[in-house]
Amino acid sequence: MGMNKRAKFDSLISLSRARLIQVLTGLLFLYLLFISFEIPVVLRAGLGLETPEIAFALPLISHPIFRTQNDNQFSTEEKEELVFRAQERKMGEFRKISGLIFDDNAFNRVSEDEFSELHKVVRDAFASGKEVLEDLKSGKVLSEVENQAKRPEEPCPNSVELSGDDFVKKGKMMVIPCGLSLGSHITIVGRPRWAHMEKEKNKGGGSTMMSQFLMELQGLRTVDGEDPPRILHFNPRLKGDWSGRPVIEQNTCYRMQWGTGQRCEGWKSRADEETVDGQVKCEKWIRDDDSGSEESKATWWLKRLIGRTRKVTVDWPYPFAENKLFVLTLIAGLEGYHINVDGRHISSFPYRPGFTLEDATGLFLNGDVDIHSIFAASLPTSHPSTAPQRHLEFSPEWKAPSLPTGPVGLFIGILSAGNHFAERMAVRKSWMQYKTVKPANVVIRFFVAMHARMKVNVELMKEADYFGDIVIVPYMDNYDLVVLKTIAICEYGVRTVAAKHIMKCDDDTFVRIDAVMAEVNKIQNGRSFYIGNINYYHKPLRHGKWAVTYE
Q1: What is the secondary structure of 45-84 as a DSSP string?
Q2: Is residue 496 part of a domain?
Q3: 2, part of any domain
Q4: Is the pTM of this model over 0.70?
């Protein structure tokens, strides 16, 4: 009886094992079938059987909102064929206007649920850009700009003065119509306020005594639609500096990018440090930890009584004090700005590249200070050219070479704004002259959208026609839509240039093309790759120019 039960149990186990083997065999068959379909795709992507140009072009064609200008000429079946022959058909053609356009018909088919705020911004930007572009082509904008140029220019007074009350009414800004020139000087009479308690942002919400103010020379006419550059930033910190001592900080700031600061902390500049018009960058003043100050005064009087002929120096206190009147004089020298307080030289700040004296058209003061009066004298009496496009040099040597008739190794698309004339000219005269660019192994183009000011757009079109290295993306420029320029770069690199590799950068970037090409040459032919640094700890900014909203 027991043997029969065991035999039945063994037979059940055998049947279960056989069924399990059958199930596993079926799953293995399905897996092999799936792999057989997957292998060709992997081979095309990994071994270069499908070119990067085609891989980039397919998403552009199938996108419901964005399309290229020639897509509506072909049926759905013809579009795949178009990708393969677009390279040969478009090669060598110069296109000043990007082929990326906004498809209104596809946009109207989007349901209300999918209709996001970003879609609205994109539609409005393309509509505005299209209107501006049509006005530029018709010549309507050019006539308006020429009529504005015929208007009388603002006078250039030799001196400007403001009382403290008028200065506050004008938003704490004194306009210097024609900027500064060599020898110009500005005198400020003011009084620092008493220190007040202020919460510290980076130390757990504690409080500290604070008394500081700033004086800035700003370029009010050098940029449009953004904060003016701080040509000179002078920041006396009576109390509240992280060091716990009174200091003076000086710097420059251009497009929200601060330069290397010059910090005066009470020590005189070293003898081997470069000077500015023979003046040291920082003078010495009596510090709180200067234990020998009383002894030095006694020694100074003793040497004077003895009649020593050697020159004796005097140590002065920090030039600013709470609730004490001061007279500050800013002088534009040959090599930089010099600042005197109460008749004594305090600091000198050398001129930074990219700025001229003519650019300094505004004086701004803010902080813990009461201004009594401001005087600016020895100003230029002739109207300078403060237009950004004055940086352009219309010389044949800076023109871009013609597009090649065959594929290129690297296409570099540079993101730029309409009024960034100086940045584009700097690129043309620097790394764009690299030896591999001239034989057309590397093609470089600036991608620029329409600007809010018509005068900038007129000059931009002239620049594009002459240099031949600008591609206009037909939408009204908006920092939130900068990704559209990236899409336009990919579209241009695939359809017009047929580049093997595509690179994107900004117009304030210096690209070492030799180093980039060295990395590119390490990649096996046909394989895709990405070069860049990933910031894993980055958090989205919620304030400022690069702010990202929660929506």
Answers
A1: HHSSSS-HHHHHHHHHHH-SSEEETTGGGS-HHHHHHHHH
A2: yes
A3: no
A4: no
